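mind reviewing this fold:
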Amino acid sequence: MLNESPTPANTDSHLLQAAFRSFDDAAATLQQSYQTLTSRLEQLDVELADRNEALRKNLCANEELREHLTAIVESLSTGLLVMDEAGTITRCNQAGTQLLGLAHEQIVGQSLAMCLKEAQLDGNVYPLTTRQGAAVSLSQRALQTRDGRHAGSLALIQDVTAVRELEDRLQRRNRLAAMGEMVGRIAHEIRNPLGSIELFASMLRRDLNDTPALRGYAEHISSSVHMMNRLLTNLLLYTKPDCSHGKWHGTEALMLDALTLAAHAVAGARVDIRLAVDPDAARIWCDEGQMKQVLLNLILNSIHAMPDGGTLTLSARVTEDAASGASGMRLSVSDTGVGIPAEQRSRVFDPFFTTRDEGTGLGLAIVHAIVEGHRGRIDVESVEGSGTTFTIALPNRQEASSAPISPAPALASVEESSASEMLDEQLLLEEETSA
């Protein structure tokens, strides 16, 4: 039997079947690749979404950090100037504009030397003084990146006014303590022979009863001894005031009593007197006699500073320390007089310093000693031609009511005068230091 040869139709059928099988295989492969690609795309979408979310959170965190750092920089009380490598200021915080007294646009883009010249802070005297009267210090340091590369520089402008005031107050206290010890010892040594002089003068007056002319000489001696004794009493009050009789007193009544004691000076002056006592400061814990003496001296000081008339203001208010939250009393005596020259303000509380020919230079020194004896402090602010304000800051009222007022630090072991004696001898304490 003969083999049948494939016909063309059979051949085409086989080829077609083979082609379909190849197409099916390719389609299956393509379907599998498509599914794999789809799965990969879905995975990439998830990864991209995660990375986008992480990037968004990172950007938000960076923005919050930037805003936080900006807020910190702008909240600093120290002026901060950032300069690039060429020395041009690229950033300045709010404190910097305030201390320089220049607008932000006048600072950014300028050199540090130019800004300091415009702000009049290019002097060589320390501390520098701004046009607003603040004492500032200036320091500069290099700015480096994390890898140590130079990236410009920083200039720091720090307000040291409060530090300078504390330094001046400490120096003044030390100076007054040293002078007080010396004055106390001298006064004590002088007072001893005065007793003998007064004794012999009294005996001489008795023996000269029949000789009026000579008796007058003895009376002059006795009068001079009494005057010197009152001066020594003031000196002793300065060295160690007795402020141990602290009680609650009406603030306004205390001021009115001091004004009554100063009536002889007020009567001849064209002065408008004003009282401003806050209701919360209606009562004050102090030694009544000593505080009257303080107010009396400050009132007389203010009246003498207003020879052409003006306004005298006595005020009292309660203050609160922002750091400790403790409250205290603040008394102020202000005038609209001639003011105190800047070069004299640091000496107004020094004993024997006076600008008046008839002054003894003890009034404000005693005021300072009495305030210190009440554990307080006294400050002076003055503008030439505009007036002067003496401010007394007394300690927390609760602390004062629970503990007796102690005398000032013992500067010398000397005799003390009572408050009543001091009020009787007020004329010797009249003093002012205004120019």
Q: What stands out?
A: The longest strand covers residues 310-320. The first helix runs from residue 8 to 75. Confidence is low (pLDDT under 50) at residues 399-435.
